[in-house]
Amino acid sequence: MLPAPQPGTESTPDDAIVVTGTRIRRPDLASNSPITSVTDQEIKYQGAVNVENVLNRLPQFTADANENVSNGSDGTANINLRNLGSNRTLILLNGQRLLPQQAIDLNFVPSALIDRVDVVSGGASAVYGSDAVAGVVNFVLKDHLDGLRIDVQAGLGVHTNDNSAVRNVLTTRGYANAPGRVADGGKQDLNAAYGKNFAGGRGNITVYGGYRHTDPVLQANRDVSACALNPSDSAGTGLVCGGSSNTPTGTFVPLGGPNAGKTLTNNANGTQTWVPYTSAYAYNYAPTNYFQRSDERYTGGAFAKFEIAPIAEVYGSFMYMKDHTFSQVAPSALFLGTTFTVPCNNPLMSASQQQSLCGAAAGTSATQDTLIGYRLGSGQSRRDDLRHQDYRYSAGVRGDLGHGFRYDVNYLHSLVKLNETYLNNVDNVKAQRALDVVSVNGVPTCRSVIDGSDPACVPINVFQANAITDTQGAYLFSESNTASRNVLDVISANVNGDLGTFGITSPWAKRGVSIALGGEHRRETLNFTADDIAKQGGTTDSDGRISVNEGYGEIEIPILQDLPFAHELTLNGGLRYSAYRNSQQSTGLKSKYNVWTYKGEASWAPVKDARFRFSYNRAIRAPNIGELFGSRSIGNVSAQDPCSGASPSASIDICRLTGVTQAQYGNIVECPSDTCSAQFGGNAALKPEKADTYTAGLVLTPRIMRNLTLTADYYHIKVKDYISSVDPSLAISQCVAASDPFYCGLFTRDPRSGALFGSNGYIVSTTYNTGSLTTSGIDLTADYTLGIGALGKLNLNMVGTRLISQESEPLKGLGSYDCKGLYGYTCGQPNPKWRHVMRTTWTMPQGASISVSWRHIDQVKLSSLSDNTFLAGTPSVINRKISAYDYIDLAGTLAVGEGLQLRAGVNNLFDKDPPAIASGILSSFGNGNTYPGVYDVLGRTLFVGATVNF
């Protein structure tokens, strides 16, 4: 279950407590910041083996990178607090940074060792440094065991495909429906840990190891994702199966000759003639895409500590993870957007095709530039092989200095390795050679074979439907490889204690003034390399280093205690100075900046039953290495080119601002499957983001109702100069709506075709300091435990969030928009006004429990329904809103003797389908016509597990 929202703690050798969100040691659990904790029991009730799934259920979080996102995934798992971006949430493990911030991956956290997860809302940079803008998530592990603990679990998705609306759409288009009933997506998780005390309890060593396997799920196995859904008409009154114009039949757009600018295709009957392309030829690329990535993870490590004397306890840890995952998407193609040069006498063309392509030059050695889209066979899906290896070492010494003071000096080193290999992808250099074909004694032969530049070249026949053979495809493929190495080193020292031992105490309080002082040095380095094949697509090598020296202090002053209308009044303040030095060795680029962060907090309990808490934090997020020095690369984005097609939606005057010539207007090829290109990369001139966060709340623990806790906390977070890039959809809408030269200037069009996709046509989306992000809302929690006599006890728990605003100002002074209650296009994932999770648990005296969870997600409307010009977009009647969603989950546990606990459960008990959304509406982290992580995409899932203690 989700426990009462009491703050989490880190263990210390004495009775004092270190609460997540402060470095002050306290005698109680009172926190000035809103904290929600998730216990290991809640994780078991969910049957979760991926920790990001646990946190994504909390209403404070919006789903981020996860196992249900395939295309474009880097294989990591992240969390997004307050929908401000995963890079604005600081992730800690036992109070220390988990990994380099740019390389955060929650797969590294051994879920079976989690004792609890503490979520602190609001800035905490004065305490922890950069990145704690939206808040802090601290994973507290069971790192001090005495005995053997083994945990096993297996799970499976069991779903009935009965979405009649989508199945009718598939049938109408002639595509195969998903099977009526499926059982797939299996997960197996095995973990073991052993700990041993020694030296009379002064020392302990705990070791652990784990293995997790996840089976892939194809989009073909769920009706909602079996084809790419598109609007049925301009008003979006219905849905139809769309597809890609990169087809096995072949699509051609000559850039010259008698058919310049026309979109043609090979006749589907196999004859070598060209006919006008229509959507009837579109290729269904969805079925072979992964809806759940395959994954195999190994974890292992050890924790050790030994008290030499009260003044010196040495401690250390080693943690390791090896994760291997594949993402899979449709087979590769010669993609429209790349211009190929075709000889007019290519012997694989018919005379009719030569005439259509070259006119009077047909049959000669002249050439014609042509856009070609030709899909290879279905047995050759593109696969992204992602291999992560993460290492984390720490060592330190801590102890009691006497007079109520303690110290801690430690060193942390973490290394993140990512090796990525992209398989079964067409090499455009080879494709060009395979199209440059002449006849040698009646045999089609690559010119590169004749001149010896590529003796292995195999001619390809793209001039007939379904004509590329496996041999031809094997020649076209070239695997691309990239590798990154990200290292974080941290040296820190701090001392904290109670000045009350020296008599520094308020005359109206019993507890003394407490302080914490410390310093920290962090250095993060990144090296990214790409091979020649990867560089063909625009990826470049990159490196960088960030070095920061910091000093900080925190003070807590109890002002009043045990007085009328002042059971307790405490003030807290913190200050941190940070000096950053950034550099890139390969270019010599350097930058530096110094920043202050600070906080002020107050806690006032007029009576013992009620406590008010207030906080203000000035937080920062320094740019990470990728944002500063990231390599420039071209990637896909969901967007529509307003200047494409025979009848562009934008005027010629607007299109000229985007780089369209008079000759190109009306002849530009549409982005295939509403997928245009964008250029991503870093900017060495970036400065830190600055954030002001406010919280105000009330905690009620009425004595007349024992075991009841109620909290209400208001939060307001504003991030200024936030580091981002202009969303391509926003650039398009603002260019069209306002003819804004800044947004229109972000278009880079293919100089020959004018296209906005491929390696030469894209929207610039590199990083820089932009405008502001603002979010506000109210968190409500309730927890009540009721004794029911001989039947045991009943616990009721609820965590809910009311969203008040989710505003973005893309650029200073150029207007803003609010995504509260909206989704899609610029607003991205759903931003419901209300979300909650409620759990009811009956714990029986016999060692059994039954727990029911109710998850609620409020309705959201399509962002284009807003009258805000920033949110202008294509309307959709059928997707104008996503109705409210409610999920019921059921779980139970049973203790068998003292050492064995069994568990089983069903998530999404009633097998509720996710919403079916037109693919063009989806944005980041959308997949399979829906939003994985927000909604359950696999349907009903079952799990069974057991924990054994010896």
UniProtKB/TrEMBL annotation:
Limits of the TonB-dependent receptor-like beta-barrel domain: 368-909
Domain TonB-dependent receptor plug: 31-136
InterPro entries: Beta-barrel_TonB, Beta-barrel_TonB_sf, Plug_dom, Plug_dom_sf, TonB-dep_rcpt-like
Official protein name in the record: TonB-dependent receptor
Subcellular location: Cell outer membrane
GO cellular component: cell outer membrane
CDD domains: ligand_gated_channel
Family to which the UniProt record says this protein belongs: Belongs to the TonB-dependent receptor family.
First-listed, main subcellular location of the protein, grouped into a coarse class: membrane
Keywords: Cell outer membrane, Membrane, Receptor, TonB box, Transmembrane, Transmembrane beta strand, Transport
Membrane topology type: Multi-pass membrane protein
Domain of life, per lineage: Bacteria
